[in-house]
Amino acid sequence: MKEEGAHGSPYLLIWIYLVVLALASVAASLVLPKAAAELTIYLLAVVKAILVALYFMHLKVERFFIHSLTLIPLALVLVLFLGLIPDIVVGR
Amino acid sequence: MSTAAHAPAEAAESTPFPSAKLGMWWFLASEIMVFGGLIVTYLLFRMAGPGWTADIHHNSTLLGTINTLVLLTSSFTMVEVHRARGRDDERRFRLNLALTILLGFVFLGIKGVEYAAHIREGLVPAKSMFWAFYFGMTGLHGLHVAGGIVANACLYAAAARPGGFARYGHRAEMNGLYWHFVDVVWIFLFPLLYLG
Amino acid sequence: MSETLAAPVEHGEPAGFWRTYVFSTDHKMIARQYMFIALFWAAVGGFFAYIIRWQLAHPDTDIPLLGRPIGPEEYNAFVTMHGTIMVFFVAMPLLLASFGNFLIPLMIGARDMAFPRLNMLSVWVLALASLILIGSFFVEGGAASAGWTGYPPLSAKPAYTGVEWGMDLWLLALALEFGSFLMGGINFLVTPMNMRTRGMGFFRMPLFVWMVMIASLIFLLSVGPLIAGAVMLLLDRNLGTSFFMAPGGGDPLLWQHLFWFFGHPEVYVILLPALGAMMEVMTTFSRKTIFGYRPIIIAVIVAGGLSFVVWAHHQFISGLDPRLATPFSVTTIIISVPFALIVFALLATLWRGSIRLATPMWFAVGGLAVFIFGGLTGIFNGSAAVDIYIHDTYFVVAHFHSTLFSSLFLGGFAAIYYWYPKMFGRMMNEALGQLHFWGTFLFFLAVFVPMHLVGVGGMMRRIANPGQYEFLAPLAGLNRMITMSTIFLLLSQFFFVFNFFWSMFRGRPAPENPWDGTTLEWTTLSPPPHGNWPGEVPRVYHPPYGYGLPGASEDWVPQHRPLPSGAAPRT
């Protein structure tokens, strides 16, 4: 077991996914029409972030309380975003 | 009289989460608000006035992609540090930590090359809203990468001392959480600033 | 289990002067360091208040003690710094950091904080921030003068204020202060989570601990966007970007949103520890269990959550999208509900209590009374339709001083008089305390109650010379009276200053539990030794505030003694 190194690592597969998704984003931005490209690259970014969070940051095995330390700030960021739309986006 | 706050004889009431891990996650929660604030502001401006992101094509998609892969790989090596600690493998611990630090330097180096090229072309922060955000966001992110390199270097030095691996090796998880967070921020900055 | 980094002092080895008083990781010493920083800045901030008031009452005359008149630019700097100092360098260091640090380990039965070295770093970072803020007065162009809220474009273009380095140093000092409190906040959150003594379940912790935890959480979650904004402002000032400058494509309103998204939760960050201290004092001096322990906690959590969706009530006349006015008015009115609950709970605690009147209790009750008054005027401000008339007038100034001063100073003094024996091992002089209280309370009212009239009479904020405006001439008499009251208010503080330092050396040595309190800090020596308890840490058998328990054979039961037979805990 000791000499398995990276080959036996469960994280290797995640790394491969991340690389593939990164390259796919680049490809999408070059190939797809604008609206579809934007949707794709941000969706893929979210997937990549979730992969890093769940597997590298071990959120998959952590209890919900630790998850809430991520979810609550994200919710507040959303509140900030929504609150600013009328002034910054619409009202300019 | 014991100054150690966790003397087992006075078993404390505690949550099931180790204090160091809790501390790091609280810190990351505040960091989500910092980068979240920046990213939200960027998104709002973009939604307000499409067209100023035409500057995006001045960014080298190649260099940005390379840097993305560099950081993703460094995230992998960082979690391998943690895994090596769990398997008591000091050699792999040191190897992967060194790789993570090295990749961090590579990332900053490539960013430096990019900045120099931009500035030579007159693409400075004052040039347009896009460049203001580009330098502001990647600059703040870069500072965080630098901080992570320093933290990892300190861990490397501490673990290199006699008995250090046993005593300090578990900190790899905390350093890792921070490093992965920095990676996640870049996962969003890359499409926002390079891919349009 | 917590990971305590190696203690700098080995058992039995005496630490030198530097390790004990300067580079200490002991939470109690760190607390005293925070307190001295806060009291220093309180004196500076108070002096600035005097300068501001003198200028308003006697514009463009020589200001006694300063020896010269001040012009409008300097006036703006004094107003800016008064606000910055009081909020960031007095309120937070005193209530949150000093008392939080001192009391949390003691109240939960821990020997120190979870991260003692991080704790030491936090107070050192604040000390550095203080030095930078002091330095900002002495650079060319003087100190920051764009208001404590730093709105661009005034703050973004040096040409508009004449202030160059001063504003950047101000931003740097604030950034460091934020860093200091993020570090402190992590300790305040993790320590009560993981280092409570046996028997100390979460709902057996004293309310003060809950208040500090929730305040730390609010700060942690709200400061991020402002840090982002500060980075943007620094770039606007120094690299010519236009995040907040309209000609370059930016938006000054953006800063206001980022600032107040933090700024409103921030006032609760200041308020909660003060309320917590007042709760501790009131229950002890009423000899009565606090009314509604759990509802209070829930109300505070609800208020904390709501505090994130009220911020734009600071921007009703800023050019804000009018469609935002109603939603933010609604949320602002709603947030008064949980605070009303807390106020009622405190009143119910006092009701039919066996009230012991000592200085801490006078300050706590006085603070509550003024807070109620200040909270009520908040309702006018929170309703957009009314706010349009009173925004940016002295009505607002009167409102927030009524709420902030009552909590920060009246609540803060309650805390100081209450825990001073534990912190310094001496009793403060009661007669001087009474003089201090009545001077502070009465002159506070004399300053800020008439100020509401000044505001409704139309006097605008942030003007250096009201005499320039004919329509303000009728208010000149009120302004002079307010200034005179301010001077007496500040003079009354000398009773405190003298008492504070004199008692440290000549006060009666304090017993372990001078006020017959039930919480754990009263079970050890005054001051507590390194490690907090000379022997074992006490374990806890029931919730705190076990005063007058029905069926008990004793008048009051501290937490570390089991309930006498027949007694039932209230919470």
TrEMBL record, chain A:
Pfam families: COX4_pro (PF03626)
UniProt KW Nucleotidyltransferase keyword: no
Keywords tagged on the record: Cell membrane, Membrane, Transmembrane, Transmembrane helix
A GO CC term assigned to this protein in UniProt: plasma membrane
Sequence intervals crossing the membrane: 12-32, 39-58, 64-85
Membrane topology: Multi-pass membrane protein
InterPro entries tied to this protein: Cyt_c_oxidase_su4_prok
Keyword hit for Coiled coil: no
Subcellular location: Cell membrane
Protein name per the record: Cytochrome C oxidase subunit IV family protein
UniProtKB/TrEMBL annotation, chain B:
Quaternary data: Heterooctamer of two A chains, two B chains, two C chains and two D chains.
One GO cellular component term: plasma membrane
Protein name: Cytochrome bo(3) ubiquinol oxidase subunit 3
Primary role: Cytochrome bo(3) ubiquinol terminal oxidase is the component of the aerobic respiratory chain of E.coli that predominates when cells are grown at high aeration. Has proton pump activity across the membrane in addition to electron transfer, pumping 2 protons/electron.
Gene Ontology MF term list: cytochrome-c oxidase activity
Membership in a protein family: Belongs to the cytochrome c oxidase subunit 3 family.
Membrane topology: Multi-pass membrane protein
Domain Heme-copper oxidase subunit III family profile: 21-196
Database matches in InterPro entries: Cyt_c/ubiquinol_Oxase_su3 (IPR024791), Cyt_c_oxidase-like_su3 (IPR000298), Cyt_c_oxidase_su3-like_sf (IPR035973), Cyt_c_oxidase_su3_a-hlx (IPR013833)
GO biological process, any: aerobic electron transport chain
Transmembrane segments: 24-45, 93-110, 130-156, 177-195
Cell compartments where the protein resides: Cell membrane
Keyword Repressor: no
Lineage start: Bacteria, Pseudomonadati, Nitrospinota/Tectimicrobiota group, Candidatus Tectimicrobiota
